[in-house]
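Retro notes (design track)

What went well: tokenization of the new backbones is finally stable.
What didn't: we kept losing track of which sequence belonged to which structure.
Fix going forward: every design gets posted as structure first, then sequence, in one message. First example under the new rule, 323 residues:
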């Protein structure tokens, strides 16, 4: 009997110790959830480097916030090596043509911009056409609950991404060479003759306190188009299918999206060449020199053009690099 009393006493002591460690409760956490307000996210999204952005989750950041940046790229190389090497070079050129996202260790992630994330060009350093209301919907779709999903071109967001990172010949605040960078991404590598293309969409959640923003990435190839009308119809179908996938993913997660931004990029791959189309949305923390005077919170109320003026940046030359 004494033995069982001793065991029972020890068990009660253990439970009591556990309750003390957990703040006196087995069911209630002692630490509240961190704020997910846009200013709090922004304050936590500054990296340790002055001229370079860095990948989210690396050491030295100011907090647990991050910024998502939209990019699309294509690259073409002559098929005179072997399929593996040709694919490497075509992919590398897709990273360095137009918006510069080269020399990074890209880590593929599932495609959400979460409660502790912001979108460059949308939430922060807002694209001018979104800020002044001149951007108009391409079309709209009805959600299952009866609400509207407005569909816009993602070109203003892609432009904002280029104006952050710069181009190969005019780098602004690119990602640190060799950095490990988590990205929502997809790519395709094909042999010509064909069109190679990639597409991206970001769906903005109606309830930021509960739901993530959703990325959709797509990539493919098509034969040569016989007319501009055929090309337009082909990519219009791609865009509408992407929007349909947004609606379905929203229904799967009981998430409501109020608007979606979607665009594509394509390139002709001649016979005897290898083409790559890449869509990538890096999750980054910003370079210190990219932060405006007065702190990063100022970016929440600045347009991309106002940010460029604050940082005294020269106009960006949109060179396309090697094809």
């Amino acid at each position: 009997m004494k033995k069982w009393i001793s065991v029972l006493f020890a068990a009660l002591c253990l439970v009591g110790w556990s309750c003390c460690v957990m703040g006196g409760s087995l069911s209630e956490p002692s630490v509240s959830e961190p704020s997910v307000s846009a200013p709090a996210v922004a304050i936590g999204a500054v990296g340790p480097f002055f001229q370079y952005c860095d990948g989210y989750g690396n050491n030295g950041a100011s907090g647990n916030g991050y910024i998502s940046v939209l990019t699309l790229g294509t690259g073409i190389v002559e098929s005179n090596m072997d399929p593996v090497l040709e694919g490497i070079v075509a992919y590398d050129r897709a990273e360095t043509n137009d918006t510069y996202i080269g020399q990074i260790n890209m880590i593929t992630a599932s495609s959400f911009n979460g409660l502790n994330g912001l979108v460059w060009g949308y939430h922060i350093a807002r694209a001018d056409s979104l800020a002044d209301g001149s951007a108009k919907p391409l079309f709209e779709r009805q959600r299952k609950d009866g609400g509207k999903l407005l569909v816009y071109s993602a070109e203003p967001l892609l432009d904002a991404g280029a104006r952050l990172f710069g181009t190969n010949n005019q780098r602004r605040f690119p990602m640190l060479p060799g950095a490990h960078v988590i990205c929502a991404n997809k790519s395709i590598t094909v042999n010509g003759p064909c069109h190679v293309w990639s597409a991206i969409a970001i769906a903005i959640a109606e309830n930021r306190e509960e739901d993530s923003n959703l990325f959709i990435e797509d990539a493919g190839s098509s034969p040569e188009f016989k007319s501009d009308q055929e090309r337009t119809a082909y990519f219009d179908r791609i865009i509408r299918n992407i929007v349909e996938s947004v609606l379905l993913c929203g229904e799967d997660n009981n998430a409501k999206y109020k608007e979606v931004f979607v665009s594509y990029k394509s390139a002709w791959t001649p016979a005897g060449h290898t083409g790559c189309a890449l869509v990538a949305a890096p999750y980054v923390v910003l370079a210190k020199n990219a932060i405006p005077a007065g702190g990063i919170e100022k970016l929440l109320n600045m347009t991309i053009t106002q940010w460029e003026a604050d940082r005294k940046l020269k106009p960006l030359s949109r060179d396309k690099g090697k094809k």
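Added context from the reviewer: The chain has a mean pLDDT of 89.
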